[in-house]
Amino acid sequence: MSSRTNATPDRRRVLLLAGVATAVVVVTGIAIALSGGSDEPASDAAVDGAYGPVIVEGAALPRFESTSDDAAIGLDTPRVEGVDPDGNPVSIGVGTGAKPTMLVFLAHWCPHCQRELPVIVQLITRGDLDGIRSVAILTGTSPDRPNFPPQAWLDREGWTGEVLLDDEVTAAATSFGLSSYPYLVFLDANGSVVARASGELPASEVVALADLAREAG
Amino acid sequence: MTPDEVADVFGTMASAGVVALVALPVLYVVSRSSSTALRVGLRGSGPALAGAIALVATAGSLWFSKGAHFPPCELCWYQRIAMYPLAVILPIGAWRADATVRSYGLALAGAGIAVSVWHNVIETFPSLDAGACDPTNPCTLRWVAGLGFWTIPRMAFVAFSLIIVILVLDSPEDSPESERP
After folding, report:
1. pLDDT tens-digit series, residues A31-75
2. Chain A residues within an 8 Å CB radius of B95
3. A23 touching B, CB under 8 A?
C-alpha cells in the first residue's frame, strides 16, 4: 500500500518551507562556524590555581560502594600531601592529624555537591562538628564546567575549614576510593577509616558519622 | 561566540517555540471551526516544518558537543538517537510527500520526549536522581542556561514537543482532502 500522494498544490509550499528551513539551518551553521566555537577560557592563573601538586604515599582505599559493610572501615588511609589555594601545605590521611577528621571531596560543577556544601557549612558554623578537623578536597576540577573556580565557590558558601587542591588526575580522590560526588570520609585521630558516605546527606547523618569519628578518638 | 551566547541564541528559538506550542493548537481549534487558516495552511507542510526543527535541534546538539566540547550524558545520547534520524527522515518525507513519515516521526519524537521529560525532572530536582554525581558526566549537570533559563534538556523538550504537535495537527485524516489512497 503506497501512501505517496500527488498533492501538487501543496508540493510548492512544502518545497518553500524546506527551502526556508534549509536557509535557517545554513545561516545558523555559518553563524556558529564563524563563532569558532570557542569559549572564553578561564585565565591561566585561575586554571593553575585550581590544581595542586599531590603526593600520595601508602595503599589506596578500596573503591567506595556503600556505607554499610564498607570494607575500608578500620583500614589505614594513604597519606596525601598537597597545598591549599594560597599555596600553603596541607596533608590528609594517616599520621597527619591529632584529632578525628572529616574529609569532604567536592566537585564544583556537581549539583549534589552544591546542595551539600551549605549543609556542612551550617553544621560547622553551629558547632555541631566541634572537635573534628574539616578538610574540603576540591577534586574533579574542570575550567570548562560551571561554577569554576572551585575555591571562589567555597568562599561564597562560607567554608571555614581547611582546603586541599587535588591534581588534574584526581590522585587524592582516587587514593581515598572515591566513586561519586560528594564523598565524605571520616577518620579517627590515627588516620584510620571510621566511616565513608557519598551523595547528598542530611545534616543529622553527617553529625552521626562525625560522632562515630569522635567516639573512635 | 561563547557557549553562553550560543545558548542565548538557541534559547531565543526555544522561547519562540513555546509561543508556537501554545499558539498552534489554539489556532488549529479556531481554524477547525471556521474551516480555514491553519488547518488548511498546515496540510502537507508538517513534516517539512518538523524537519526544520529537528535540523536546528541537531545542529545545536552537535555544536554543544563538538564546538563547546560538552560531552553528552547518557540521557542526552538517548535523545540524540531519537532526534538525529528525525532530521533526515522528516525532510525526505516532506520532499516525497510521504504521509507515512508522520508515523515514524511521531514514534521517534515520542520516545525522545519521554526521555526528555525525565532528563528535565532530574536536572531540576537532582535529588530525584541517584543523589550523587557520576565523576565523569552526570545528567544533572547544567552546562548552560540560555537567557538564564534554557538549559540543553529544556531546549530539547521544546523541540520534541513542537515536532509532535506539528505532526499531530498535520494529521492526514484531518485534512480537507485525505492524502490516503
Report:
1. 555 554 444 556 777 787 899 999 999 999 999 999 989 999 999
2. 14-15, 18
3. no
Q: Which residue has the cell 587535588?
A: A166
Interior CA angle at A24 toward B86 and B66, to 5°? 65
Question: CB distance B132–A10 less than 8 Å?
Answer: no
**Range 155-174 of A in CB contact (< 8 A) with B:** 170, 173
Q: DSSP secondary structure string, B34-88?
A: HT-HHHHHHTTTHHHHHHHHHHHHHHHHHIIIIIS-----HHHHHHHHHHHHHHH
Residue A76 Cα to chain centre, angstroms:
24
If we measure between CA atoms, which residue out of B46, B118, B107 comes closest to residue B82?
B107
Number of domains forming the structure of chain A? 1
Structural domains in chain B (count): 1
pTM: 0.74
* Spatial distance between the Cα atoms of A28 and B90, rounded to a whole number of angstroms: 19
Residue B23 lies in a domain: no
Would the CB atoms of A3 and B45 count as touching at under 8 Å? no
pLDDT digits (tens, 9 = 90+) for A78-136: 999 999 999 999 999 998 878 999 999 999 999 999 999 999 999 999 999 999 999 99
Estimate to the nearest angstrom the gap between the alpha carbon of B78 and the chain centroid. 14
Residue B139 lies inside a defined structural domain of this protein: yes
Residue B129 makes CB contacts below 8 A (sequence gap 6+) with B122, B138, B139, B140
Give the C-alpha separation, A62 to A140, whole Å: 19
Tell the burial category of A48 from Cβ atoms under 10 Å away from its Cβ (0-12, 13-18, 19+).
exposed
CATH number for B158: 1.20.1550
- Cis amide prior to B181 (ω within 30 degrees): no
3-state helix, strand, coil in chain A (%, to 5): 35, 20, 45
Does ipTM come in above 0.90?
A: no
Does residue B43 sit within a domain? Answer: no
Structural domain range at position B72: 1-10+60-172
